[in-house]
Design brief:
Length: 122
Amino acid sequence: QVQLVESGGGLVQAGGSLRLSCGASGRAFSNHAMGWFRQAPGKEREFVSATSWSGGSTVYAESVKGRFTIYRDNAKKTVYLQMNSLKPEDTAVYYCAAGGLLRTTPSGYSYWGQGTQVTVSS
């Protein structure tokens, strides 16, 4: 069992930056791939980024490639999402998730946090 808690969301102007954190408790954080997803009002949850258990492999949605960076610190049981050059279309609730393998679909993850709101004003 893994419990996840996101933090770091907020209101930022377009072009600004935020860093999201996702702290984990429970067993075997370092055995899990970690992903970030987001969901805007009226839209389906969409993949943002994911990293393998070691952090050695990462994948990004095309919409965030070059602007967002995912990284993890297994000693701290935390995964981060550094978001730069934010755009109004990045506005959403951001969720972190833990799963067995690096996947880009929500069904690939077993554990989810409660989400943190990111709002980007134009």
